[in-house]
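User: Second chain of the day. Same drill as before.
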Amino acid sequence: MAHRYLLISEVALVARTSDSTVRAWIRQGRLLSTKPGRRRLVRVDHLERFLQENESGQEGGDLENASSGGAIHRQGEG
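Assistant: Same format as last time:
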C-alpha cells in the first residue's frame, strides 16, 4: 500500500497552525518528513500520530480532504 503525503501548507491547515510552526516541528525532530525533490512532505500516518501525541484541542482537521484538495473540516462538524 502506498503512503499518502501532505505538503507543509496542508499539514498546517489540518493542525490549524502556520506553515512556520510546522517547519519548526520538523526542524525540532518532533514531526517526521521527507524531501524527495524540492518540496518537503509529511506522511499522513506520521501526522496523525504526532497530533494524537500532542493533543492541545486545536488540531483535528479532516485528513481525508487535506490531500485531495477538499475543504478542511473539524471532525464531527457537518
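The helical segments are 8-15, 19-27, 44-53, 63-66.

User: Great, on to the next one.
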